[in-house]
Specification:
This protein has 9 helices and 14 strands. It has about 325 residues and is α+β, with helices and mostly antiparallel strands. The protein folds into 2 domains: about 1-80, Ribosomal Protein L15, Chain: K, domain 2, CATH 3.100.10; about 90-330, CRISPR-associated endonuclease Cas1, C-terminal domain (Four Helix Bundle (Hemerythrin (Met), subunit A)). It has a 5-stranded mixed sheet with strand order 1-2-6-8-9, sandwiched between helices. It starts with a strand and ends with a strand. Its EC number is 3.1.-.-.
């Protein structure tokens, strides 16, 4: 099991979650039970073969702990959410729906895409230095050019076009993922990001992104927003499109940096087409440790990455309520 302050991730098959004397315990095979404490906010079931009792489900709700279940491909398959952890829900969601209905959502989405591309560019330059791969610096500046083009459109007040936003995002992504793929010293079949890709790198990314999605979904919901009403990802029944829009900003720093700074073959181990337990455990450990690490944003505020995720969700909700520009997370690396 992996532990981040306020977050528990169960990744060991055969684990049990049960209640004893009013305390919820998580116990992996051949391990001592770990209690769910009063400051725990999120519990993620990241593997199959986990048993949980009805009493444990009820007690988790009473403690205000959100339970998230990840599917086989790493997607959020289900959740149990306490009813008293959300704030200013009606006001925030009405503003969110109004922005969608009035066609103003693209402006918010474009700010998230801009920040995502900036973070991709900064990660490539960071890797160029940390891994002593100077050629990555050129890729970083090339990716940043796409962010500059989008920023110019936003700052000059020109009419936003969805095809332009998606096009710049896609061009930046091709250059970004091509550079990261070149860092892997053995052939994995990875040629770029594909959420349905069967190669081990895409599977590892999907699994790791699911951990980020669970945290981002909680942050958006606590801020009073509807995680299923996004601005760029297409709305579809059961698809948390705002979670995807919002998480994209954090992916390069929260996940890609954790996986590509120190590439280890055990991160990508497969057995019968699925990530091994060892791979899932190591991926979860890396992502959680990264979420607990301090980062400085563009405004100079230094805090844990997890706290940035919650803080920027509040900022997004406030921006929607006050009908003003949203400035998405950009990390200083």
């Amino acid at each position: 099991m992996s532990i981040l302050e306020n977050v528990l991730i169960v990744s060991t098959p055969g684990s049990r979650i049960y209640v004893r004397h009013g305390v919820v315990y998580i116990q992996a095979p051949d391990s001592k039970p770990i209690p769910v404490t009063f400051d725990t906010e999120l519990l993620v079931l990241a593997t199959g073969g986990v048993s949980i009792s009805g009493r444990a489900l009820r007690r988790l709700s009473e403690l205000g702990v959100r339970l998230v279940v990840l599917g086989q491909r790493g997607q959020v398959a289900g959740e149990l959410r306490p009813v008293d952890r959300v704030n200013r829900t009606i006001e925030s969601r009405l503003a969110q729906y109004r922005v969608k209905l009035e066609g103003r959502g693209l402006a918010y989405a474009a700010e998230m895409v801009y920040a995502k591309i900036v973070n991709q560019a900064r990660l490539l330059r960071y890797l160029a230095k940390s891994r002593r791969e100077p050629w990555l610096r050129d890729d970083g500046y090339a990716v940043e050019e796409y962010a500059a083009r989008l920023r110019s459109t936003l700052d000059e007040g020109r009419r936003l076009d969805e095809n332009l936003v998606r096009g710049l995002e896609a061009q930046a992504a091709r250059r970004y993922w091509s550079a990261l793929a070149a860092l892997i010293p053995w052939d994995t079949g990875f040629r770029g990001r594909d959420p349905r890709g069967e190669d081990p790198v895409n599977k590892a990314l999907s699994y790791s992104y699911a951990i980020l999605y669970s945290v981002a979904s909680d942050a958006l919901t606590v801020a009073g927003l509807d995680p299923y009403a996004g601005f760029l990802h297409r709305d579809r029944s059961g698809k948390p499109s705002l979670v995807y829009d919002y998480s994209d900003t954090f992916k390069p720093i929260a996940v890609d940096k954790a996986l590509f700074t120190n590439i280890d073959q055990q991160l990508f181990e497969l057995y019968q087409g699925s990530l091994t337990y060892t791979a899932r455990r190591e991926l979860a450990r890396r992502v959680l440790e990264n979420l607990a690490s301090p980062y400085t944003d563009a405004a100079g505020k230094r805090r844990r990455l997890r706290d940035h995720i919650y803080g920027y969700a509040w900022s997004l909700a406030q921006s929607l309520r006050e009908n003003r520009r949203y400035q998405a997370f950009r990390a200083r690396l």
